[in-house]
Design a protein that fits this description.
294 residues; mainly alpha; Endonuclease III, domain 1; Arc Repressor Mutant, subunit A; three-stranded antiparallel beta sheet; metal-binding; EC 3.2.2.31
Length: 294
């Protein structure tokens, strides 16, 4: 199995994208920020926001010192804004529990707000060079195809996925961390869901799926998420008004963003329930302190 890792790593050494969170000595906090932002979001959208966050909040204590509303504001249109609140809560926990440093132990990482199995292992592997199976959708697809001969690994990560990917990692710790990054890059760039570039793949001679004929499923492996006209879109429009405002916003200024009153009220109620928006009398704002003169 380690042959797959060595072939993929050799390809990665030559072809890896030049992404700033991969820079040597970048530090664990910028890597953690990138992992929060990259969840369900393309790299091209993350890059400018990540740079702004790292420049503004170079350490967890810098973000923790701000209101969570500032994190939501700086998140911009990156999508899924609850991630901004969770990252702020994570920064606060890092200050309170770990002296403002990102811990090096898996159990401590998993105990942080907003940090799940994937994020915890990704940060430990990519920031600290540890040996962990880092399993996202791309890695699961590479393993399913190269080892199991399946076109798709299914909808959700299972313990079997972690076991399989760990079996592919070299025993050498540094080599394993590099292989984790390489498998992820291969799935993102070549071994894609619908248009895999098998001719360019370093595993083409070892891939069980390619040997079986490399047949793709007849339909999409998962139903594409619709955005236009959904509550998610309305939530985004409401948040955009509040992010741009210097203080609390009156209700009529929110009402104009969407014509369907029922859907608009439902979206606003969900933002209030999530803590992304707070009522200020007859007005609304992002969470946090409001200047006395507003």
């Amino acid at each position: 199995m380690s042959e797959l890792a060595s072939l993929t790593t050799a390809w990665y050494d030559v072809n890896a994208r030049d992404l700033p969170w991969r820079a040597p000595e970048i530090g664990a906090w910028p890597v953690l920020i990138s992992e929060f932002m990259l969840q369900q979001t393309p790299v091209v959208r993350v890059l400018p926001v990540w740079r702004e966050w790292v420049a503004r909040w170079p350490a967890p204590a810098d973000l923790a010192a701000e209101d969570s509303g500032e994190a939501i504001r700086a998140w911009g249109r990156l999508g899924y804004p609850r991630r901004a609140m969770r990252l702020h809560a994570c920064a606060t926990a890092l200050v309170e529990r770990h002296g403002g440093e990102v811990p090096r132990r898996l159990d401590q990482m998993l105990a942080l707000p907003g940090v799940g199995d994937y994020t915890a292992r990704a940060v430990l592997a990519f920031a600290y060079g540890q040996r962990h199976p880092v399993v996202d959708t791309n890695v699961r697809r590479v393993a399913a195809r190269a080892v199991s001969g399946l076109a798709d690994a299914g909808a959700a990560t299972t313990p079997a996925d972690l076991t399989l990917v760990e079996s592919l990692l070299p025993q050498n710790v540094a080599a394993a961390a590099r292989a984790s990054a390489a498998f992820m890059e291969l799935g993102a760039v070549l071994c894609t869901a619908r248009t895999p570039r098998c001719g360019d793949c370093p595993l083409r001679e070892r891939c069980a799926w390619r040997r079986s004929g490399a047949a793709l499923p007849a339909g999409p492996s998962r139903k594409p998420q619709r955005y236009a006209g959904t509550d998610r879109q309305v939530r985004g429009l409401l948040l955009a008004v509040l992010r741009q405002a210097a203080g609390p916003v009156p209700k009529p200024a929110l009402d104009v963003v969407w014509p369907d009153q029922v859907q608009r009220e439902r979206a606003l109620d969900s933002l209030l329930a999530d803590g992304l928006v707070v009522p200020r009398g007859e007005r609304f704002s992002l969470p946090g302190r409001v200047p006395a003169d507003l």
